[in-house]
Amino acid sequence: MSLLIRGGKPLRGTVRCDGAKNAALPIMAGAILSEDISIIDNVPHLRDVETMSNVLRSIGASVRVRGNSVLINPGKRLRNEAPYDLVRMMRASFLIMGPLLVRLGVASVPLPGGCAIGQRPVDLHLKGFQAMGAEISVEGGFVKARADKLKGAEIYLDVPSVGATENIMMAAVGAEGVTVIENAAQEPEIVDLANFLNSMGAEVTGAGTSRVKVEGVKKLTGTRYSIIPDRIEASTYLIAGAITRGKVMVENVIPTHIRSVLAKLKECGAYLLEGPRSVEIEMPSRPAPVNIKTLPYPGFPTDVQAPFMSLLALGQGTSLISETVFENRFNHAEELIRMGAKVKIEDSNAIVEGVPKLSGASLQATDLRAGACLALAALAAEGQSEIFGTEHIYRGYSDFATKLRLLGADIEESGIPKRSYAKS
Ligand code: EPZ
């Protein structure tokens, strides 16, 4: 699969974002905390959602997708082991560990490998489970955890890990007593998960702050819950409007969830009009250079770093991007350089010297946000680009080409990868 993009057209019009991928995945895992059926609404059609559905099916839950709603029936009998071939496709599969420990007292989940953006360890997840009394061992690439009854504990996270906060929170809702997570991640997706769990009868307080408290409860019931809009998708389409110097209205976004991104777009010279659940952007000229430092929420999101780099590649000066969350999240820079961008990587910093134009090229996406970055650059570049590795993009952006086409982009999908690498 590849994307063919002919650049140079300002995007104009309205695009509606879907539900948040990074809320849907933990919430789907959390649904198995109860034996009852749960229905989750506003779920995006994404490869990662399909993968999580298959992971839940592999441990015995039934999952039915109807439009943007997912019906999950965990049932009474779950299996405690998830298969390697599914977990290796998506590290978020590891989020079933906490729920399985609550439901079965035992869980065996493949240790997620690293990926293009970094090592992606899960030591903090395991530290939390151990603090609650679980015995953990790693055998044959699987993490095996056992706990007859999880006990509430005080847990300090060395880094405010999103996944660790979510996994520990889900384990804590079924533990005996109170769990406090110190230095918890504060992302909106954490709050969404807490709200979902509370709608099942859990007692989670403090989500969205660095101190989350969970009172364990005996039983959780099924629920119906609608997830928050995807703030990363919204940021991506705002940047698409900016980089093509167009005028784009992004609907189904909560502006407070992207405060840092809006601030940086404003610093670049964009005109922004905020509604309760929409933001309109207009970019009359080349962006002014800005400095960006990615941080845990509410800092600038690491997932928007790559898309924003494409905008700054066309800036009227030199910008500095510092990536503090992941150790290797500049893979997209090499591909931008092949389009004529001037980017220098020095450790965790990228120095981006803006150029007046980029030229279309054949490009390779290495992860979903890098893929989005290259598509945005191609939309602004002169000439045609072909982006390979679009399976990465479709992990996190539903109807990506269609949404851009509706904004006036000259973009089409082609099924047959045309570039054959010279046999080495
Ligand atoms: C979540 O990943 C998101 N994925 C990522 O989005 C996002 O980039 C990331 O949070 C940061 O915001 C989902 O929610 C499914 P972390 P996660 O644990 O939970 C270190 C996308 O593009 N760490 O907050 O894996 C880790 O190495 C994806 O949609 C430990 O050291 O991220 C990293 O440096 C990419 N030990 C930092 O914490 C641990 O046990 C942040 O990772 C866990 C994490």
Associated small molecules: ligand EPZ
Distance between the termini: 22 Å
Strand arrangement, major sheet = 21-22-1-23
CATH top level label of the largest domain: Alpha Beta
**Domains, number:** 2
Uncertain runs with pLDDT below 50, 5 residues or more?
Answer: 416-424
What is the third-level CATH name, the topology of the largest domain? Answer: UDP-n-acetylglucosamine1-carboxyvinyl-transferase, Chain
CATH architecture of the largest domain, by name, is Alpha-beta prism
Shape from CA axes? elongated
State the helical fraction: 25-40%
Number of helices: 14
Radius of gyration, taken over Cα atoms and rounded to an integer in Å:
22 Å
Number of distinct beta strands: 23
Q: Could you say which structural class the secondary elements and strand pairing correspond to?
A: alpha+beta
Largest sheet: 4 strands, mixed
User: Roughly what fraction of the amino acids lie in strands?
Assistant: 15-25%
CATH superfamily of the largest domain: Enolpyruvate transferase domain
What is the assembly state of the chains in this entry? single chain
What would the average pLDDT be, to the nearest integer? 95
